[in-house]
Amino acid sequence: MSYFLIVLAALLAVFALKLALLSVLFREDIRAAQKRDPAAKSFLEIVLLYPGLHALIYYRVAHALYKARLFFPARLISQLARFATGIEIHPGAVIGRRFFIDHGMGVVIGETTVIGDDVLLYQGTTLGGTGIVTGKRHPTIGNSVVIGAGAKVLGNIMIGDNSYIGANAVVVKDVPPNSTVVGIPGKITKQDGRKMDTDLDHARMLDPIMQAIEEIQDKIEKLEENSRKV
Ligand SMILES: CC(C)(COP(=O)(O)OP(=O)(O)OC[C@H]1O[C@@H](n2cnc3c(N)ncnc32)[C@H](O)[C@@H]1OP(=O)(O)O)[C@@H](O)C(=O)NCCC(=O)NCCS
Prior knowledge:
- Helix content is about 40%, strand content about 20%.
- By secondary structure, it is α/β, with parallel strands linked by helices.
- The chain is elongated and about 115 Å long.
- It is built from 6 helices and 16 strands.
- The structure holds coenzyme A (COA).
């Protein structure tokens, strides 16, 4: 019995040590999660239960291996992370400080993606390529950008600092700083705090030629009616 208690105490000590080490090494990232998620109740909850944080920890290790050109182990860790968290971050991606993925499931971040500081992603976000091209083919995300649930940001494009990408938007063109983008394809609805005029929807604009033809038709009908009366 006492042997069992010693083993249990040793395991608990190792666990506590691991927890303390993670808390020190990833303090900034844990604080970012605490700040960004109003549902987060405690430090311990984030460290133990947040897949976004776990994926980031795996990524930081995998990225270090990738930079040391240990591509296979790097990829192996990223696939283990995907299995454990549902989040796939290619070890070649470059991710800044205080990065947070909320909920996480279904997030994919491609190899040549570059992400600035203080970026928040929600579940289902894809930072991907548009086809089979080589070289820089994934987006560059500025600082303090928020990307909503299910949004797809595709190709070698730039999302400017402090921008919001709406849930389920598909963005395939550069976005200037301080913008809000929604819809498919993504349209800017707000920039520098001002609402943009999105009424100019070409699909719904009146066709001037059709208008002229309809006017002529009306006139012919009136003339025919008048001639019948005479
Ligand atoms: C885009 C977003 C950032 C809101 O920005 P906002 O500047 O506050 O925008 P508003 O709420 O004032 O909406 C502006 C217009 O965009 C529309 N809109 C807002 N979000 C949209 C979206 N994701 N897709 C399509 N249209 C959207 C609104 O209906 C509104 O249209 P209107 O002007 O015709 O009435 C926000 O709606 C969003 O999508 N955030 C992502 C949050 C998320 O993913 N949460 C997941 C939690 S689990």
